[in-house]
Design a protein that fits this description.
The chain is α/β, with parallel strands linked by helices. The protein is built from six helices and eleven strands. The N terminus is likely disordered.
Length: 238
């Protein structure tokens, strides 16, 4: 069982009702949204991992595209040339928040998972790219890299999840990310759901839970079996 607490800055929190906290999930919403938009994922994670602390903070900036919602960085006038710099400028307070949350619950980076949707997925991917090992897992829903990475995190398993019919951030971005991470010998999986658009769809959430429960990190797989190859990583959800 878990309890919902009211935290500062409109953070949505689910904490274990009793016993020690063993895992930390930090959920990052999309642009113009609020922590409440991550509730379906938070509920699924709470059911699957009852001893986890699940935090969904509000984006650190007011959304500049309307009167409500929050954002991690401005998308006004954003393009391929300036996106990476905007993300870089937005990362420090998020990294500080992640590290403070790890200290709060006395958990290691390897016990931490970042899960982001859309702009939140961008932030999660770029955070572990800039700080290798900041989290043991990343769940990137309907997201992309601000710029395709030049190196892959060695201490983070990345799970890429996308709707095939996404017309906001096309699934080709996720496919390109997986291809690049494979080239760099990164640890990543990819799941593309057919007939799903730009949404935190239950099918993708369920697939993410399966990935968390069943995927052995590549570094552990290789150490145990003496392999120099990836375990199976991709699938299409029908």
């Amino acid at each position: 069982m878990a309890s919902l607490s009211s935290a500062p800055s409109d953070t949505l929190e689910f904490l274990p009702l009793e016993g020690e906290t063993r895992q930390l999930f930090i959920l990052l919403h999309g642009v113009g949204a609020t922590p409440a938009s991550m509730r379906p994922l938070a509920e699924a994670l709470r059911a699957a991992f009852p001893q986890a602390a699940i935090l969904a903070p509000a984006g650190f900036e007011a959304y500049d595209g309307g009167p409500a919602g929050r954002q991690w960085f401005s998308v006004r006038g954003v393009d391929e040339a300036n996106r990476a710099e905007r993300v870089l400028q937005a990362l420090p307070p998020l990294v500080d928040y992640i590290r403070a949350s790890q200290a709060r619950f006395h958990l290691l980076q390897s016990d931490t998972a970042l899960a982001g949707f859309s702009q939140g997925a961008i932030m999660a991917l770029e955070a572990v790219g800039a700080h290798d090992g900041l989290a043991g897992r990343v769940l990137a829903f309907s997201g992309r890299y601000a710029r395709l990475p030049q190196w892959a995190p060695q201490y983070t398993t990345i799970h890429l999840l996308h709707g095939a019919n996404d017309n906001v951030i096309q699934a080709t971005h996720t496919e390109q990310a997986q291809a690049r991470l494979n080239e760099l010998h990164g640890d990543a999986t990819i799941d593309i759901a057919t007939r799903i658009g730009h949404e935190l769809h239950p099918a993708l959430i369920q697939r993410a839970i399966v990935r968390l429960q069943t995927c052995v990190p590549l570094r552990s797989w290789e150490a145990a079996l003496g392999l120099n190859q990836h375990p199976p990583s991709g699938s299409v959800i029908h």
